What does this fold into?
Amino acid sequence: MVSVGVSLLERTDLIFIDPDVKINGSYYRDTLLRQQLLPSICSVSGDFFTFRQDNAPAHHACETVARLSAETPDFIGPQY
It folds into this structure.
């Protein structure tokens, strides 16, 4: 799996995830978002960006939505 942040002006580096890793809410929040994707997004976009994701199960876990709502400047939550 590959993850990337994309905007009208720029994109983050590609983040490759080992095929053996099970992507659950905890891994997505604590490893992918906190350690890799959000720092990379901030480095290319500064302090203001809108964070939007698809409806993968790890993306709409309650703790994930709560963390992104609290830690990103603008978050578009899951669309059910």
About this structure: The chain has a mean pLDDT of 91. The helical segments are 25-45, 62-71.
